[in-house]
Design brief:
homodimer, alpha/beta, seven-stranded mixed beta sheet, five-stranded parallel beta sheet, 15 helices, 40% helix, 19% strand
């Protein structure tokens, strides 16, 4: 049985159960066994995180930055072994996906977080000299992170965006590794632990548990030692954690499900349907559709252009068969979702069943529905389908566009293919409805690219996430989630945090000593 | 029966019930009757707000600023009548409290919001030229505001900080006036409606309902047309709204209860106990203790200095009898709270019962408890006591300070009286625990002053509020709550919002037209 990382040491888990990762391409269990920890492990990790949290208060930003840089370097140096393990556990292609794209992105994200930690750009220091008040963002405390199955590196609970964001603000992290790729997570954690020790960070800064009973997960969320939670995954699991966190008023940042609608407007469809069809088919099948920004729904005007477009998309989906999904569970959930969509009124254009020749794979699937039918069952026709599946909604009259947009749930992205000036009025009508429902408005691109940029929003209104004001990708913005607002009123210099004292050197901060005044 | 303000007109309510405000000084019902609206009124207001919300998208910031300035001016011109009504309905002193302090603060807050609306300083525009991505904050949509009983002007749902913040970001507001001062709210709403009409704002931008059944309140919170909720009031009511909002993943900003601990350290107590006692007594009795920042708990070292201090506080509390509370309900809740504190182990030093000579008044009350007793029943000894009541916690050994701090709930403020260098080590120990639990760290001042400053945090961890990252006072920071993060990826200039286009004039924004790339 593999060991867990608690309080700076690899120790035997107090396990209530164990599990093996499965190679989804072969449907075979991999050799090593990973523990499902008892509450005892969770409890020890929480106490160690709380101790680390206090010590991190007085840790220099430079030291946190050093950790992140060292960790990034270890990952670069050991990329081949880590990506090999990830490929085995997830069936994601080693190249280009894991080694050429996801690992460099992960390393870059850690380095960007190091820059933010060093510059403290996330602090948002505000000083009111006249009033003698200063505020800044400060660490929130121990952060519990639940990583997803679909990005074993860039969103891994111990190396991804949530991790990098939480650490940059001086918070310890308890990572709950995803059971679909524990071997990858273990390798990452070994490098993280080594880098944390090199950098002299408190021993409980980076911890790893491979799993716990669902009730212990909820108990950890509600435990007073946990300050905030990050979660990326399914709506069902996310909502359980959200309910637990909400009950005790704890910040939880969720990235759940999103259909990422693509609106293809009449003139654009007519003028460049063929290239849009190519982009769409490629976006649907990227990572076997297991992207949170997969375009699971697109809207286009009914007619001969649309029929030609659908034939083209279907031909490309059929010609480029999907690989194995991340797990047998992903496959069975996908089958259930497609069945639900069909029951709700969608019709199959191509695909729709598991592949016979490939293990744990589902045929690339195109479904279609008329706008009236969509509007009549919009909730059920937005059922989360995590995999290479997309639903075309065909609009037969002008009012249909708005009716569809009105019925869409909150989503990470809304993409538009619209040609100026012919499509401009319709663009405005739909955009005016979709801006409030989407985190990111995209033109002439599919949603599956999420650049790590300070301007990125990988977020959006519920149920895409739990709050429309935060992003999970893009630094320093994503750090915001794992901070609290700290205010210092009439506090003398020697007792102010460094980030405010440093500002003082330039602009004198005057603590006024007046006693309380009404209002 | 008074009329409600829906979609720009004063109209007869579709009422299910009616109520009269009570003059709490006389315990007499005031003449006018105000409606409790049916769902029909709520539904019409929500639809009008949604329509206004769309129109506000294309309203110039200058026009919103004009509204706020005109409204502020109308309030200044009509301050005497409004404050007279507020004094009658709330028993708060006309002068200085209402006319000299709260009204000018309200006017100033509206003018500051006008500046923010005009400058769009709340937008936080971020442009990544290389990636062709830009983001900014945008309006969130219709905001439902529940105002409190204790600040009939500065936190009124139709004139206070939540209102000004929501409007500044281009959101329509449905105000639910507090039933303890409906006449005041009506006067404010008349000026707001006139200013909105003068400024040519969409008709549903400012609406007022005097009350609805609790189930209709919860239904409004969950209605898809509501985008966000602001609430200031009791923990009980706040938690009901929070549960409703959380179920549907809707942002809700709550300001609930807070004990606002004051730590008086040994050297400071010895050196200046007498002036601290004076400041404390004055802070406890301010507004008859009906401040969200009232110091309901203070901690000091047991011994002869403490006994002298408590005698001094008690003498001042007894010598300056409290006035009438805001309502009979406030009085009865306060009686229950004091009874609960006594049952949990607190002992009475002075006060503790309703006043015989003044209607709806409670004696200024000082309670005391030993630190061991406090630690054994810390939850019950932090029972919300909204009124002129404070609990002294006497620490008999050094470890007691940390044990108390560890057991305190999230709070708006934590105040310290600590003399350098003697009290510095103890200050650090307590501060290290309290920073995470408090929105504002105060030195040598009582918590009852909340300056409207960009650096202010009137917020704090649960249960003081619902999220430790937001403030309810201080602009532009408070506006943040009523925005969402909007991102524009590869969007051509003509389709970008003005705030990003304006930035373009200075720094070219390049929308890159590359198609989707993996990750």
């Amino acid at each position: 049985m593999e060991q867990v990382l608690i309080d700076g040491s690899w120790v035997s888990a107090n396990a209530v159960d164990g599990y093996q990762a499965i190679n989804p391409r072969l449907d075979e269990a991999l050799e090593r066994e990973f523990p499902v920890s008892s509450w005892d492990d969770c409890d020890r990790a929480l106490s160690a995180a709380l101790r680390a949290s206090s010590r991190l208060e007085t840790t220099e930003p430079e030291q946190i930055a050093n950790f992140l840089v060292r960790y990034a370097n270890y990952l670069s140096e050991n990329a081949a072994v880590i990506c090999q393990t990830a490929a085995e556990e997830t069936a994601l292609p080693l190249s280009p996906r894991l080694i050429d794209v996801e690992m460099p992105r992960t390393v870059d994200q850690l380095l960007q977080a190091a820059d933010c930690a060093r510059s403290e750009s996330w602090r948002q220091t505000t000083i009111d000299h006249d009033a003698g008040i200063a505020s800044c963002r400060g660490s929130v405390g121990p952060v519990l992170i639940f990583g997803p199955n679909n990005f074993p590196l860039a969103f891994n609970a111990i190396s991804g965006s949530d991790f990098a964001s939480a650490i940059a603000a001086g918070n310890p992290v308890i990572a709950r590794g995803h059971p679909s790729h524990p071997g990858t997570t273990k390798l990452l954690a070994e490098h993280a632990a080594r880098a944390a020790s090199d950098a002299g960070l408190p021993s409980g800064t980076v911890q790893l548990i491979y799993g716990m009973c669902p009730e212990d997960g909820l108990r950890m969320v509600q435990d007073p030692r946990t300050a905030a939670i990050g979660f990326t995954g399914s709506r069902r699991a996310g909502m359980m954690l959200k309910t637990a966190a909400d009950e005790v008023g704890k910040p939880i940042y969720l990235e759940m499900s999103s259909v990422n609608p693509v609106f293809i407007l009449p003139t654009a469809l007519n003028a460049r349907g063929s290239s849009i069809a190519e982009a769409l088919a490629s976006s649907i099948t990227m990572g076997a559709g297991q992207f949170c920004t997969c375009p699971n729904l697109f809207v286009l005007p009914a007619g001969s252009d649309a029929e030609r477009f659908l034939r083209s998309v279907a031909a490309q989906l059929t010609a480029n068969p999907s690989g194995s999904l991340l797990s047998k569970q992903v496959l069975s959930h996908l089958q259930e979702s497609v069945a639900a969509l069909l029951t709700a009124g969608a019709e199959s254009v191509c695909g729709g069943v598991p592949m016979s020749e490939t293990v744990n794979a589902f045929e690339n699937t195109l479904l279609r529905v008329a706008s009236d039918t969509f509007c009549a069952a919009a909730g059920r026709l937005q059922t989360e389908a995590f995999g290479p599946v997309s639903l075309a909604v065909l609009v037969s009259d002008h009012s249909g566009w708005q009716q569809i947009a009105q019925r869409l749930d909150g989503t990470l992205t809304a993409s538009f293919y619209a040609d100026a000036p012919e499509d401009d009025d319709l663009y405005s009508e739909i955009y005016n409805l979709m801006r409030r429902k989407s985190g990111r408005i995209i033109n002439d691109k599919m949603p599956t690219g999420v650049t790590v940029s300070p301007a990125m929003n990988h977020g959006g209104p519920f149920p895409a996430t739990g709050h429309p004001g935060f992003t999970a990708v893009g630094l320093p913005a994503a750090i915001q989630r794992f901070t609290k607002l700290d205010c210092y009123d009439n506090v003398p210099t020697a007792r102010l945090p460094q980030c405010i004292r440093h500002r003082r050197d330039h602009e004198p901060y005057t603590a006024d000593s007046s006693e309380c005044s009404e209002v």
